[in-house]
Each structure stands twice: as structure tokens, then as C-alpha cells.
Amino acid sequence: MGLLEYLKKVLGDEEGEKAYDKISKDKDNVLLVDSKKGSKYIEKSELDTANNSIKEYKKQLKDRDKQLNDLKDKAKDSEELSQEIEILKADNEKTTKDYEAKLNQINFDTKFEKAITGYKAKNPKALRALLDMDKVKLVDDTFIGLDEQIKTLKESDVYLFETETPGGTGNIGGDSSSVIDTDEGKLSLGARLAKERTEATKVTEAQNKFFS
């Protein structure tokens, strides 16, 4: 569902078109009306524009509620009309809450995508699927309950993350052949030890022959 259709659905055809026209004329709000954009990432300026829009809508709805209350006072003798007014007020409130919830979700997802890249996951979407998102809360641009889960997954599912290569610590004496962290290094060391044992045996045999 595009933004125009969404606005028509929650605000009605006339109000929805007015809202859409207002947003589409705002150059800072291009991403919100361009449904062809592939990325889910939304700049802070665009979120601010959207938040300002919802504030404006809330103000308009409050004004409309006031008008409905005034109308209700005038129509208090008509039960049917009073009920209709109450329904309109409830619809106004629901529209505001739904739109706010959508903006809050966009804000959460945008900041979450940015935060998750810092953990060097091979597949951020797969990583998110393994997280208990009910325990992740966004508080003042900081995600609470995320770091603990990531640390646990780094221990239990190492394959999900890029391998971090530790820096070298240097070798005593500067002899690179003493490195035994790799399989090749272990084999080289084993071969040297075998050679040393063979030479030591030969020396021992030679000494025995000499002193016999």
C-alpha cells in the first residue's frame, strides 16, 4: 500500500489527498512518497519531517474534536447524531495512534539497522531473526537489551559474525619460525624436534662407542 492509499484510508479521500500533496511538496520528505526506493534507511531529517507532520495532524484532529464537541452540545437532543459524533471522535483518535505507531516503527527499524552493522554480522537479517526483539527497547537513541543478546550469540553461534583477526604480538628473538599458532607452524616445529632427537641419538651412540 502506497502512502497516498494509506493516508486516504486513515484520513479519508479528501483529507488524505491534502496530506499527500503537502508531504510531496516538501523536498525534505521525498523518501516518504517515493515508493520505488529500495532501501529502508531513512535519514534523520526525513524522520523529523514525518514527526512534524504527525504533530500537525494531531493539532488538526484536536481542532476537529473541539468542533465535534460543540456540534454534540447543539445536537444533544438527537441520540443518533450524538452517537455518530462519538464514532467520528474515536476514528480521529485511532488515526493518530496508528500513524504515530507507524512512525515509531520506522524510527526504530532505521536506528536498529545502523546499530546492528557495528556487530559485524555476516547477515544482519538472519541475526535479527535470532534476537528476542521483545526484550530490545530504544531509549534515547540507545538500544537496551541488545548488547547482551549479541554477546551470547557470539559465544554460541560464532559463524554468524565476521572473524576478527587479532594483531601480532611479536616473537622473542625475532625468529618467525617459532610461531606455532598455525598448522604449518606446528608441523615445522614437530619436524625440527624429530630432527633434533635423531641428531641427539647419533651423538649418544657416538659417545658410547668412544667410551666403550
TrEMBL record:
Pfam annotation, one family: Phage_scaffold
InterPro entries registered for this protein in UniProt: SCAF
Superkingdom of origin: Bacteria
UniProt keyword terms in alphabetical order: Coiled coil
UniProt feature coiled coil, ranges: 47-105
Annotated protein name in UniProt: Phage scaffold protein
Phylogenetic lineage: Bacteria, Bacillati, Bacillota, Clostridia, Eubacteriales
